[in-house]
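Write out the bound-state structure for aspartic acid.
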Amino acid sequence: MKRTFTNKILAEKGSKVQIAGWIATRRDHGKIIFLDVRDMTGTVQVVCSPELAKSLRPEWVVEIEGTVKERPDAMKNSAVETGDIEIAAEKIAVLSEAKTLPFAIDTNGYEIGEEKRLQYRYLDLRRPRLKRNIEIRNRVTQFIREFLVKEGFIEIETPILTKSTPEGARDFLVPSRMYSGKFYALPQSPQQYKQLLQVAGFERYFQIARCFRDEDPRGDRQPEFTQLDIEMSFVEQEDMLRLFEELYTKVVEELFPEKRIIQTPFPRISYKEAMAKWGSDKPDLRKDKSSPNELAFAFIVDFPMFEWKEKEGRWDAVHHPFTRPQTEDIEEVKKDPANVLAYQYDLALNGYEVAGGSLRTYKPEFLRQVLEFMGNTKEEVQEKFGHLFEAFEYGVPPHGGIAAGLERFLAVLLNEPNIREVMVFPKTGDSRDLMMDSPSEISPGQLKELSLEIKKRK
Ligand code: ASP
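---
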């Protein structure tokens, strides 16, 4: 017999069906036993005799054949999608048994220690709250894909084994076996690739991109996370902002109708004004901060291009060095770096930064001057970014882009206290994967192959 998913059972009243799934609950009423059977699409009630249900325990995996019947009126449960019907079981096969779970999965789970939840994440994910979060995440990414493709964008995957690209964090490095002493870097973002794709003529690029940043544990950060990454050619700043505004407004309207965006178009606020009024470049502009359904977006624009790095004794880019200053005169930059503004924009939402991007400096000579101004020697510029300069010699369009932290946006929309709640297999706050037990040691053979030697820290 062909298996029917529980969300399709309603249409099968009177017929014989086969379902498969996990026993969510078992209620023993002496002569009859009720089971709630859960599959990917929901749950359904099964009625069976004690002989059939014998030793069945919660979370066992079963396959059940039976007839779909309307429940007596008094037994209907409108809170469940299949609450009007039940299956009278005729045959039950146990496909696998389950030990008692290490924690309850019918609660929201906030009360359980995080280490336990992450060690048994595959069980934690059975929890309805997490299941819903992951399903909504899927709907949001599908919606974004459809929206962007309709706008003429194409989705392109860029390499994970790559070279360092400056986003202000430490790189994760991967030793090369074939070139001993050399390393790949995992991308902190697809920044340079997406710019090079503009040179290639892919004028509207996007990617749901994994990014890696080896930062010290700080608040709600993860060493790997997902960005919605976009780059476009022949655009001005307002084009980028309008596109993003439309995308996020539609995501909210279509998928979170209970939410209310308090101002559209999103206000454009200069960095200077934001700092003066709210002391933050990601101000929380909600009128009622206790309302779970209020969304206050704002674009923060006109960021300073440079900031002074006291420790290193040099000027550095506030965003990244590819950002286009609002002047293209290096003498002006040198005269008063602190007051040079950039074509940089961030999107703030309820006190969080949920996206950031910039127009890029695409004139090679000026880019070189800016990189040198930030303390790179001619040789360093060549070594780190030679490929970009070379590419820019072959016809580069003016371009710009933006990247949005997907998990942060979802956490706000789902009223979750941290981004781990919207990720399937997050790491702990101190960057460990307790389920897989990583990072972990590697064998002496692997070390040898990589020409590496581990010095124990004292
Ligand atoms: N690569 C930048 C970031 O990850 C975003 C951008 O400029 O497009 O923050």
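---
The longest helix spans residues 128-150.
The pocket of aspartic acid is lined by residues 167, 189, 191, 356-358, 401-403 (CB under 6 Å).
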